[in-house]
Design a protein that fits this description.
The complex is a heterodimer. Chain A has two domains: 13-77, no CATH class; 98-284, MetI-like (MetI-like fold, Orthogonal Bundle), CATH 1.10.3720.10. Helix content of chain A is 78%, strand content 0%. Chain A contains 15 helices and no strands. The two termini of chain A are 13 Å apart. In chain B, the strands form eight sheets. In chain B, strands 21-20-22-16-23 form a five-stranded mixed beta sheet. In chain B, strands 3-13-11-10 form a four-stranded mixed beta sheet. A four-stranded antiparallel beta sheet of chain B has the order 6-7-9-8, with helices on one face. In chain B, helix 3 runs parallel beside helix 6 (213-221), helix 11 (364-373) packs antiparallel against helix 13 (413-422) and helix 17 (536-550) packs antiparallel against helix 18. Classes of the chains: A mainly alpha, B alpha+beta. The interface between A and B is large, with 49 and 60 residues.
């Protein structure tokens, strides 16, 4: 019951936050000197009448505050509006979201399933050569910028011809049977997943290792060891449970990054995800599309935080007590 | 000990990474330098014009190109976000228009070599005065099997275009003295267009796609708002009814557009078999040029337009690769340097341009001095990697209206100095230039930030002009602010800009050259200034642009446009810089490739085929 009330309170708190986020982003986009019509203006074959019509269609003839009001009104109604080309924003997003989710879910799944055990192993075998090699590798993984790594892999794909150069499906995809379709998508996913996986794995492994080392150094672990508890249950029963808390917060952030975290990599690999769509929208100042994506980002971040807080309440009795 | 091992490992790793860098660096050194050999102009032998052949009462268009083999795909690309619509009448961007033109043929098309208007969907056309009589082919069909008749043509022009549905720019460009042309049906296979006055550009506008009446009519009846969403990118490909060589098969956002051959196409080969040869035409949607190059290199693309350093790199490998590189001549865009000739005051009584500067820019000697000081060859060499040609005329070098009497010339700073001296400019001991009233010659040069080509040109112009002792403050500013500066608040001194042009129709530039045009940048008049005095050469340009559109005969028309080019060449309101050269690469396996300066390389998609491997 307490938890429910807590959740409700948190959700109510997000409303003013969302309003603020939307206001700030709307004004920044509209006040930036990017004119959605600049291209048309400098085209000798576009007449003045066409320009005026476009202006009215995009609502650029009204003051910014009115534009915001109109946007907010339809947003509350659940209508995300139309893009500058007249397509439904919600349709555009729907086309891209599954692709991005496919990529990010695979990456998160892989990096957690590999990163956590590697972190634990490294912490247990602290200062061994295994730990050191992992440290070097993860340092590289953390240091390398994702777009650079992505470009390197693309060049690799061009030189060897082993992998397709970006995209998600081959041009004869629709004619394939299910097995081949699966293989085709897998082949296209390997490189972008490698990039994102390397980077996210590195961070996660370091985090887990650090947390566990902290805990292993604490008094109660020493006590448990002194008591003669087996090493296995010291780590699994006592240390791990306490070491995992910061990771839950991290999980919340991973959730927020589900839709927006892979934008750069998506762009380099020409992956048909949200990132590419939104980057192109920002460059054109396609207000409805940009606003929709920013709002999605904000909502996802809030949800992610809420999720991790709730999980923490469940796992950590100290927080439960403090409330 | 362990630390030592780690250190050694790290050093080895770094060395390996650096090694790969070094190799790449050497590689790119080889690439640069030898691009001049590609600049020779292509000399294609085109097949004879297509003919009309009657088989079983159907008047087919017969391609005279050599007979090819059926089957196979051609994969090409489009940069950016892909098509926004498949409705040919809604297309506002190039990609959408290209895709729509693949599916919907127009009545006429352009000959790839001579630029003449030749029949396509129409069997023949006749012009007498203001009347254009179009004869249609008998018995040719839409992809759903219905016949293409005069009703479709009438419907397309009267109920879609003249009625103002979709993108109205075609309609807007046809309004002559407030009146639109009319269209009437003379028979089942004959229509007549009438323009209110003689209007030369009209014939080319007949290349506008024709829509199937039985599909478009219900959409038109639902109103303009519905029409804007009709045949959008979400439409089921099955529901398209088309006349072109290829029909949409699937559109996957941000990935590709796939077209499949139209079995009902009305063009046949010399054996009487229905074209096109290719089974499928695939457009990959790529985000940027770099990715496109990688895809071509990786074999995913069959044809590509090459730029900059890539040209030399690909040319070097051409001899042992499976592609051939073609030079398809100068680009249709123009790049120019312009001075602000505006001498008017704004509503507050303040001059748009500083009166001191007005005297310089308004002085023909000053403009010509600037022109002679600019080193176009150097620009071509350094900015365009040698892949460009100096430009001196407003019509591009591949234009059929180009005035060939206007000769190019080299940089000549002595002449510049002479011209400046004639107008009373003088230099102090530090080679600083002053005008005859003792004002230091200093002005701002703008271009749009982010366009690396124009920024590079700006730096070179600045250097060239500073050799003359002028002080140039080069300021690249954001595109939109620049457009605003140029069009709405004409408070600029000098600018580097570019326009897209047409090699076929100079009338498209009338917004630029008419003194009250919306893009008359060098002397931009605001709507309330339309009656302000005009410079003598502006008056002449007004006359020439207006008369040029009224004469139908090509040779007579060209006289008007020759004179307009001569005026621009002499008066230098725009100082043209250079035209980039377009280079394309296409796999050797394709047959019937006839690169054309006017139409590019894959304009004859229905004739292109894949050669036998063993040949």
């Amino acid at each position: 019951m307490d938890i429910l009330r807590y959740i409700l309170k948190r959700i109510l708190q997000t409303i003013p936050l969302l309003i603020l986020v939307s206001l700030i982003s709307f004004f920044i986009i509209r006040l930036s000197p990017v004119d959605p019509l600049a291209e048309l203006r400098l085209n000798p074959s576009i007449s003045q009448e066409t320009l005026e019509k476009e202006k009215i269609r995009l609502g650029l003839d009204k003051p910014i505050i009115v534009q915001y009001g109109l946007w907010a009104k339809s947003f509350v109604k659940g209508d995300l509006g139309v893009t500058s080309n007249g397509e439904q924003v919600s349709v555009k997003l729907k086309e891209r979201i599954p692709n991005t989710l496919l990529l990010t879910v695979i990456v998160i799944f892989l990096s957690w399933i590999v990163g956590i055990p590697l972190g634990i192993l490294a912490a247990i075998n602290w200062k061994s050569s295994f730990d050191r090699i992992l440290t070097v590798l993860t340092s590289i993984g953390m240091a390398i910028p994702s777009f650079f790594f992505a470009v390197l892999l693309l060049l690799f794909a061009v030189k060897t011809g082993w992998f397709p150069i970006g995209g998600l499906t081959s041009s004869n995809f629709s004619a394939m049977n299910f097995g081949n379709k699966f293989l085709d998508v897998t082949k296209h996913l390997i490189l972008p997943v490698t990039v994102l996986f390397t980077i996210s794995l590195a961070g996660l492994q370091r985090q887990m290792r650090g947390n566990l080392l902290d805990v292993l150094d604490s008094d109660y672990v020493k006590f448990a060891r002194a008591k003669g508890v087996s090493e296995y249950s010291v780590i699994c029963k006592h240390a791990l449970r306490n070491a995992v808390n910061p990771l839950i917060t991290l999980l919340g952030f991973e959730f927020a990054g589900l839709l927006s975290g892979a934008a750069l990599t998506e762009y380099v690999f020409q992956y048909p995800g949200l990132g590419r769509l939104i980057l192109e929208a920002v460059l054109k100042s396609d207000i409805n599309l940009v606003m929709a994506s920013l709002m999605i980002g904000a909502v996802m971040l809030i949800l992610g935080n809420l999720l991790s807080d709730i999980l923490l309440i469940i796992t950590d009795p100290r927080i439960r007590g403090a409330k | 000990m362990k630390k030592g091992v780690c250190l050694v490992l790290t050093v080895i790793l770094c060395a390996l990474l650096l090694k790969s860098c070094i190799r790449r660096d050497n590689f790119s050194e080889i690439q640069t330098g030898n691009s001049s050999e590609i600049t020779e102009v292509l000399n294609t032998e085109f097949p004879q014009n297509s003919k009309t052949v009657t088989i079983n009462g159907v008047e087919y268009l017969q391609s005279q190109a050599p007979i090819g083999k059926f089957g196979g795909d051609l994969v090409t690309s489009t940069i950016g976000e892909g098509p926004k619509t498949f409705n040919p009448f809604n297309a506002k961007d190039n990609t959408s228009a290209t895709m729509a033109e693949i599916m919907y043929d127009g009545l006429v098309t352009t000959h790839p070599k001579t630029g003449e208007v030749i029949p396509k969907l129409a069997k023949a056309f006749k012009i007498s005065g203001n009347n254009y009589i179009i004869e249609l082919r008998k018995g040719i069909k839409w992809s759903d099997g219905k016949e293409i008749t005069a009703d479709d043509v009438i419907f397309t022009w009267r109920d879609i275009i003249f009625a103002g549905y979709g993108n109205t720019s075609t309609r807007d460009s046809m309004v002559i003295a407030g009146q639109l042309p009319t269209v009437e049906k003379l028979g089942e296979y004959e229509v007549k267009f009438t323009t209110p006055q003689p209007f030369a550009p009209f014939l080319r506008l007949l290349a506008t796609p024709i829509a199937p009446k039985h599909i478009f009519e219900p959409a038109v009846k639902k109103g303009k708002e519905y029409f804007d969403t009709f045949l959008s990118t979400n439409t089921n490909p099955e529901s398209f009814v088309i006349s072109g060589a290829f029909k949409l098969q699937e559109y996957i956002p941000a990935q590709r557009v796939v077209f499949v051959r139209n079995p009902n196409y009305y063009e046949i080969n010399l054996e009487g078999k229905k074209l096109p040869y290719l089974d499928r035409l695939v457009y990959l949607i790529v985000g940027d040029i770099n990715n496109e190059v990688l895809k071509f290199e990786g074999g995913e693309l069959d044809v590509i337009g090459l730029h900059g350093a890539n040209v030399a790199r690909f040319k070097e490998r051409e001899s042992y690769s499976d592609y051939k590189i073609y030079n398809i001549g100068p680009d249709t865009g123009t790049m120019y340097l312009s001075m602000n000739l505006n001498t008017r005051k704004d509503s507050k009584g303040k001059f748009y341009v500083d009166p001191i500067k007005q005297k310089w820019f308004g002085d023909l000697n000053f403009r010509r001095a600037v022109d002679y000081a600019i080193d176009r060859k150097n620009m071509v060499l350094n900015v365009a990697n040698g892949l460009g040609l100096p430009l001196f005329t407003p019509e591009t070098l591949n234009s059929i209206f180009l005035n060939k009497d206007l000769k190019p010339y080299d940089r000549n700073t002595n002449k510049s100095r002479e011209l400046l001296k004639q107008s009373g400019f003088y230099w102090d001991s530090n080679n600083k230039l002053y005008d005859k009233f003792g004002n230091r010659v200093e002005f701002n040069l703008y271009t749009n930030a982010g366009n690396t080509e124009r920024e590079a040109i700006g730096v070179m112009v600045k250097q060239d002009l500073e050799d003359l002792g002028m002080k140039v403050n080069f300021k690249p500013i954001e595109f939109n602010s620049l457009v605003n500066k140029l069009v709405s608040t004409p408070d600029w001194d000098m600018v580097i800009m570019g326009f897209t042009g047409s090699p076929l129709e100079p009338n498209g530039g009338k917004n630029v050259w008419l003194s009250n045009g919306t893009l008359h940048l060098f002397n931009q008049r605001q709507p309330d200034e339309y009656n302000s005095p005009k410079l003598p050469f502006e008056q002449r340009l007004d006359y020439l642009m207006e008369q040029g559109a009224l004469v139908i005969n090509f040779d007579e028309r060209k006289k008007y446009y020759d004179e307009y080019q001569k005026i621009v060449y002499d008066e230098k309101p725009f100082i043209y810089l250079y035209s980039p050269i377009r280079i394309s690469a296409i796999r050797k396996k394709f047959g019937n490739i006839y690169p054309s300066e006017l139409s590019g390389i894959t304009y004859n998609l229905e004739e292109i085929y894949i050669k036998d491997k063993n040949r």
